[in-house]
Amino acid sequence: MILVADSGSTKTSWIALNKEGEIYFKIETEGLNPVVFSKEILHDRIISKKELIEIRNEVDQLFFYGAGCGSKNASNFLKEIIEAVFINAEIEIYGDNIAAVRSLQLDAAGIVCILGTGSNCSFFDGKLSHQKTASLGYIIMDEASGNYFGKQLIRDYFFYRMPVDLMRKFESEYDLNVDTIKENLYKKDNPNTYLAQFARFLIENKSNDYAKRTINSGLRLFVESHILQFEESKTVPVHFIGSIAYFLSDEIREVLEEYDMQLGKIIRHPILTLAQYHTTKI
Known about the structure:
The protein is about 45% helix and about 20% strand. The chain has about 280 residues and is of the alpha/beta class. It is globular, with a radius of gyration of 19 Å.
């Protein structure tokens, strides 16, 4: 049996395939970012699903794609945890940029961007994926991601930069108690996922002038910090993966036009096309 996983910090999508390439099941667990979570948390999240435990001895190939897996140390750290569960499997672990390229099924050069809980950007030359900047995570990078927009919303709320009517709506939908926020940011696990949950509010109210400015400002920052690193950015399509990209597709198109860039594909859930990629290898 073949198991394919696509993981962010918020959730991990799993698809099990039989030897004929048919889907045995598709499930989700919590995110498995090896940079953010401890060994114990990662292990517990994998074994939390009975579907995975029931096939653990039958899996002979496991392809794991994930946020935080771009470095060798993080990849090896996660691999050891997975090997302890799927003891008969040959395991391959790749960064989320490789997942994006393969799920897009590109046959030509393009810029490949990830906008989900976190963000990332690489250049695919038609054969290989290239990154110029190492991802340093949600604290100082991740422009235009869910956690970036969540951080902006919380800051603007407490600095009174948000319109009063939107402030009232915001506080009616979320627990904005100072102690609650501090506990989630500095004492609990998953601070990036916690921040990303607030992005929903921005998306749901994106017709508001404040929300429009916040979204466009974040997208422009992403373009200037990440996409413009590549000299090919104005000559090849710019593709996107992730829920934030999916729900902000119109805004992305408008911002790219400002920079004379061409929008390519946008995929919200890459796991299905990732599975298709691996069925062709069977």
